[in-house]
Amino acid sequence: MTLSPQELAQSIVQAAESKKAYGFTVLDIGRVSIIADYFVICSGRSTIQVQAIAEEIIKQVEEKYGILPRREGLREGRWVLLDYGSVVAHVFLDEERLYYNLERLWGDAPVADVGGWSMQPTVVK
How many domains does the chain have? Predict the structure, then answer.
């Protein structure tokens, strides 16, 4: 079975939703960069929640597909980056998300339609 980047992105969104992540944006980064196909961006309300969201993504993706990401920031829980190659998940605290503003940085990337629903971008000022 071949895992499509879109299916992986959808699984990441579902795992994050199960831990009450919010403010989802999925960017089709593959249209503007070779870094990955998709960026999944979401937020948690505390460092503990950010860590729980990231750990749930890791757990569910490993159980479902048997793959583990390269990861950064899990210990601090302010911005956790989970790199699955074709899909990179970013789980932020709000203040970190506002500061780094990936939606603006990657503003040329279209918002992706993952699993039949369009993930509308969060407005970050």
Answer: 1
